[in-house]
Amino acid sequence: MINAFIAGILIGIIIPCIGVVVVLRRLSIMGDALSHVSLAGVAAGLVFGINPILSAVVFAVAASLCIERIRKSIPKYGEISTAVIMSVGIGLAAILSGFVTSANFNSFLFGSLVAISPFEKYLIIVLSIVVLAIFLLLYRALFYITFDEESARLAGIPVQPVTIVFTVLTAVTISISSRVVGALVVSSMMVLPVAVSMQIAKSYRQTVIFSVLFSIFYVVLGLFLSFYFNLKPGGTIVMTGVISLIITLLTKNFKGIVKKGA
Amino acid sequence: MRILEVENLSFAYQGNYILKNVNFTVDKGDFVGIIGPNGSGKSTLVKLMLKILIPEKGQIKIIGKDIKKFDGWTKIGYVSQKAGEFNGDFPATVNEIVGASLLANTGIFRKKPADYDQRVYSALKKVGMQDYGNKLIGRLSGGQQQRVFIARVLITEPEIMFLDEPTVGIDAKSEEALYCLLARLNEELGITIIMVTHDIGAITVHANKLICLGEAGVTVHDINEPVTDEFFSEVYGYRVQIHSHQCQNCGHMRQVGCEEC
Fold it and tell me: Which of A86, B51, B206, B221 makes a 20 to 30 Å CA pair with A122?
């Protein structure tokens, strides 16, 4: 349980950092594609006796590089690359899961509280710190590229390398998150805290900070609820986020109506 | 002083030549309008001058250096067509957007320059937007957003400013104010302005040079005297008439071009 909380909080910090850029660049579908590929990586790891988080990271990083390569070849229809990789991920995961004998595979679909081993905990800690450090290092460049890619290039930002590094960070984040949150719901966790914070934030910086705070709140509350009510942690965390988004939108609309009436 | 030299420039999209043997020069302090019908290669020409596209043939010299070896891009400002088409819900303040150019290549661990706030304020003041620094960019009108994008360019104190149809999607009053602002930046700060536009009436008032991309190829016209209806009709390939009226902001006599009914 302690392992799940440590891993959960770290993941709760890095998912929205990546999520802000993913949402604002309208790349949410890329999160879906990479999560399915990481699931295929998990299945491959279980079949071949490799640690499933490690194999998920390898699969997702390879897929992220393929997405960028295909996107470069057909820039006008860049989203095709994401759709192709998503199909590969789903197809491979479906085939490989047929060879998995342990029940461990299901814990990667919706997350698990008890399945995290000490090795996986340390792996998640190390990779989370690396992802966070690189994200902070590229924070200003990513902001500029997200807002206006052409001007960012003229301002001297190496747009292509930064974009590739960001895609790899996304892949690593998604694959290490699949253990706690689950591969099927990790892309929702990229979007939900960002969607809520965009309703109330007054700047880009606030959007990032609020997203991280909301995300940690969803993870902690979701893990508590799943522990006490014996629920799947991934589903509980995501539903906490969905309820929070509904409350925020209703409050915002209510405030708008009151303001108009006054 | 020559600030831009274009020699025998050619560019083709999938074998079709959009620009062929284009030659012109721009001097420091010029206000240049690039006009021509849709598809004549105006935006392509700007992208070539900004090294966003690579020419098939020819040479471009920018601030005395071959563009292939040019590295002083902070001296070049660019307000793209896309600036007016950005995600309106983007959660960033005016200050964050204007200051982005100063911090482009620094990580969050690096301190902002000591004069960062002052430079952001000063850039916004030049475009009359100093009171909007903490507002979200999406909450501003189209004309105000364009001013912010110009401030973002001004913060690096550019020598040349390229604008690609900056008046698209803004109303007539804001458009007039934008032209007056550009004329002021050109006259007071000596910034060379190169601007793609369809607004032939306004550009002939403020620009001192026109680069015309038309059916007869590329022609350069120095505006020492008013340009005639016949000249524009030749560039656009159909009859164009110019009407005059006075700008309410700066008092300049403005001409409005329209296709003759």
Answer: A86
Give the strands of the sheet with B192-196, arranged side by side.
B76-79, B160-164, B192-196, B31-35, B209-214, B217-222
Q: The domain that contains A191 carries what CATH number? A: 1.10.3470.10
3-state secondary structure labels for all residues of A33-73? HHHHHHHHHHHHHHHHCCCHHHHHHHHHHHHHHHHHHHHHH
- In DSSP terms, B60 is beta-bridged to B6
Q: In chain B, where are the structural domains located?
A: 2-259
Range with the poorest average pLDDT among A22-26, A33-37, B55-59, B229-233: B229-233
Kindly report, residue by residue over B80-105, the tens digit of the pLDDT. Answer: 776 556 677 789 999 999 998 888 76
Q: Does A119 touch chain B (CB under 8 A)?
A: no
pLDDT digits (tens, 9 = 90+) for A24-53: 988 888 888 999 999 999 999 989 989 888
Contact A154 B136 (CB under 8 A): no
Q: What is the pLDDT of residue A103?
A: 67
Of B229, B231, B234, residue with least CA distance to B244 = B229
- Number of domain units in chain A: 1
Which residues of chain B lie closer than 8 angstroms to A147, CB-CB?
86, 90, 92, 97, 100
Partners of residue B193 on adjacent β-strands: B31, B161
Q: Does A224 touch chain B (CB under 8 A)?
A: no
Q: What is the ipTM of this complex?
A: 0.83
Domain enclosing residue A62, as ranges:
2-261
Asked if CATH classification 3.90.550.10 holds for the domain at B2-259, the reply, yes or no, is no
Contact A177, A227 (CB under 8 A): no
Whole-angstrom distance, CA of residue A183 vs CA of residue A35: 5
